[in-house]
Design brief:
Elements lengths: L2 E4 L5 H12 L3 E6 L2 H4 L3 H5 L3 E4 L5 H12 L6 E4 L9 H15 L5 E5 L24 H18 L4 E5 L17 H13 L11 E3 L2 E3 L8 H15 L4
Parallel strand pairs: 1-2, 1-4, 2-3, 4-5, 5-6, 6-7
Antiparallel strand pairs: 7-8
Helix pairs in contact: 1-7, 4-5, 5-6, 6-8
């Protein structure tokens, strides 16, 4: 049994992953952005899930989540599932929050970051990026950045299994009802990477789609771009990986 945090688990892929991991006997920590949203997680909490609440657009809230979790039983894995498709929250939620949690949380030996096929359309440039969400952010850029973060963590923390997952374009609230990909397959790879023991799982630095390791955007494994991104995030958050 592993203790696994799933961010953004009130609905969609995060809810499905948390439900599945809980059914498999894992100790699951679910997350919602506020108390109102947390109410929909009552069924999972009643089955034994633990709950943390905090708005990932707010850096102080992310820090409070990290402190709360560090004061509890150690986490074995984190699935950085929470994501925003459009608007000012894109950069705060899609890259700043996972960066801060990666930096602040003690203990997890497996980190899974939700990427997207849209990351191939991202720009490997940090010029003019609005990290604070004062204007609308680019979803494609944010997913390129978080995929690069996963690869950088794999390089710099050799004792940690760090991977990115493209869940596919699935019919969730974000993906829309007509999305063509398989909802069940959309959450299985991140669960597998967070808790499995197959030889493929015990690898790091991968970009995965439906349990297949693929080649990401060429910038993802560019160490100079990784370092540039980490420096920008450290300066922006006053928190160094």
């Amino acid at each position: 049994m592993s203790r696994i945090l799933v961010t953004g688990s009130a609905d969609g892929l995060g809810r499905a992953a948390a439900d599945s991991l809980l059914s498999a006997g894992h100790d699951v920590v679910v997350h919602a952005r506020n108390r109102e949203r947390a109410a929909v997680l009552d069924a999972l909490v009643d089955r034994g899930a633990h709950l943390v609440v905090g708005d990932l657009t707010e850096r102080d809230a992310v820090r409070r989540i990290a402190t709360e979790l560090n004061d509890a039983e150690p986490l074995d894995a984190v699935i950085h599932n929470a994501g925003v498709w459009s608007g000012p929250a894109v950069m705060p939620v899609n890259i700043i929050a996972p960066y801060l949690l990666t930096t602040l949380l003690r203990g997890p030996r497996r980190l899974v970051y939700l990427s997207s096929g849209s990351h191939f359309g991202g720009r490997p440039s940090l010029t003019g990026v609005d990290w604070r969400g004062e204007s609308a952010g680019s979803y494609s850029d944010s997913k390129l950045f978080v995929t690069t973060l996963a690869a950088a963590v794999a390089r710099l923390r050799p004792g940690v299994l760090s991977n990115a997952v493209d869940p596919g374009w699935v019919p969730t609230k974000m993906g829309g009802p007509h999305a063509p990909d398989d909802l069940e397959l959309g959450h299985q790879t991140q669960e597998w990477l967070a808790s499995g023991d197959d030889p493929q799982v015990l690898t790091t630095g991968g970009y995965w789609y439906h349990r297949r390791r693929l080649q990401p955007h060429r910038a993802v494994h560019d160490e100079a771009f990784q370092d540039h991104l980490l420096q920008a995030l450290a300066e922006e958050t006053d928190t160094t990986l």
